[in-house]
Amino acid sequence: MSWRCAAEGRTATAGPALSWGGAPRMSLQTSIVPPPHGRAEQFAAGRRAAAAALAAAGSMKRTVPRAPDGRPLFPQGFTGSISHTDRLALAVVAPGAQAVGVDIEPADITPRTAAFILRDQERHLLLPPLGPYTARDLFAAKEAAFKALNCLGTLGEFLFWQITLSHSGSALSATYRGESVPVRIHSQADHSLAVAVRR
């Protein structure tokens, strides 16, 4: 999956039915955040990405209104999630999924932040030298899982760093209060992308 075309100002697509490392089939679309890169531009870019992801997934409805609590309201049967930086927005739609979460993180995570958001076992087993992930990857994984687990509507209020991450085959497993969701990571030099989909 290349993000080069997105950086050049065109919409990048991972295809209408992306199968990403054994992940459930889903649509992932991106949209550039135009200058001056403020909140309004980020919001609009996120909705453009969501509309494109819905179209690629086969939805006739392409608008994604905002719930009173700020969450995007995707059409019934087309579970989705949106994330953005100040330059790039992306959306994932997984038709028929129970829960979906996506997060993109462009900034490196300081050791102090990593010590706060990651448990001792997560740092020991998932970060080098034993693990393949960066602290930024795991931050994105917890954020994506938080969005997905919040979709379930059964866990009450909690904070993303309370989620526990562990190895689960080719993906991570994110767990909170007995509920879990698989999370897949795509990492590049300038960002980490995490997608959580629960069928």
Automatic annotation (TrEMBL):
<dbReference type="InterPro" id="IPR037143">
    <property type="entry name" value="4-PPantetheinyl_Trfase_dom_sf"/>
</dbReference>
<protein>
    <submittedName>
        <fullName>4'-phosphopantetheinyl transferase superfamily protein</fullName>
    </submittedName>
</protein>
<feature type="domain" description="4'-phosphopantetheinyl transferase">
    <location>
        <begin position="99"/>
        <end position="195"/>
    </location>
</feature>
<dbReference type="InterPro" id="IPR003542">
    <property type="entry name" value="Enbac_synth_compD-like"/>
</dbReference>
<dbReference type="GO" id="GO:0016740">
    <property type="term" value="F:transferase activity"/>
</dbReference>
<keyword id="KW-0808">Transferase</keyword>
<dbReference type="InterPro" id="IPR041354">
    <property type="entry name" value="4PPT_N"/>
</dbReference>
<dbReference type="Pfam" id="PF01648">
    <property type="entry name" value="ACPS"/>
</dbReference>
<feature type="region of interest" description="Disordered">
    <location>
        <begin position="1"/>
        <end position="20"/>
    </location>
</feature>
<dbReference type="InterPro" id="IPR008278">
    <property type="entry name" value="4-PPantetheinyl_Trfase_dom"/>
</dbReference>
<feature type="domain" description="4'-phosphopantetheinyl transferase N-terminal">
    <location>
        <begin position="39"/>
        <end position="94"/>
    </location>
</feature>
<dbReference type="Pfam" id="PF17837">
    <property type="entry name" value="4PPT_N"/>
</dbReference>
